[in-house]
Amino acid sequence: MEKFTVLEGVAAPMKLVNVDTDMIIPKQYLKTIQRTGLGKGLFSEMRYLDDGAENPGFVLNQPAYRSSKILVAGDNFGCGSSREHAPWALLDFGIRCVISTSFADIFYNNCFKNGILPIVVSKDDLDKLFDDAERGANATLTIDLPAQEIRGPDGGVVKFEIDPFRKRCLVEGLDDIGLTLQKAPAIDQYEAAKGAEQPWL
Question: Which residues in the chain land under pLDDT 70?
Answer without folding.
Answer: 180, 182
